Amino acid sequence: MAVLRGWQDSEQGTPLSSTGFSRWYASNQPDNYGAGPGNPGEDCGSVHRNGGLNDFQCNMKRAFFCEQELLG
After folding, report:
1. With 60 as the cut, is the pLDDT of residue 6 above it?
2. Which residue ranges does the record annotate as region Disordered (predicted)?
């Protein structure tokens, strides 16, 4: 799983909005909940059940997706 920092860019370094999808599951997301000394916060992502993106801690087990360049 790719670790994304700050949720500003895709894995290739382009703006997330350029992927055609950057809708978060709630208006307060991404929130990087729990970030602080000794805790990196929420650097991984998933698709929420409502179809929006969500950030979560990378040590949590969740279904995930990968970003890949389309060939053709």
Report:
1. no
2. 1-46
pLDDT tens readout for residues 9-20: 666 677 777 777
Overall pTM surpassing 0.70 (yes/no): no
Q: Which two tokens stand for residue 50?
A: 């409502």
Evaluate whether 58 touches 44 at the Cβ level (below 8 Å). Answer: yes
Q: Where are the domains of the chain?
A: 21-67
- Cβ partners under 8 Å of residue 69, min gap 6: 12
Side chain identity, residue 33 = Y
pLDDT digits over 22-58, tens only?
788 898 888 888 888 888 888 888 888 898 888 888 8
Residues 22 and 52 sit within 8 Å (Cβ to Cβ): no
Q: How far apart are CA 16 and CA 13, in angstroms?
A: 8
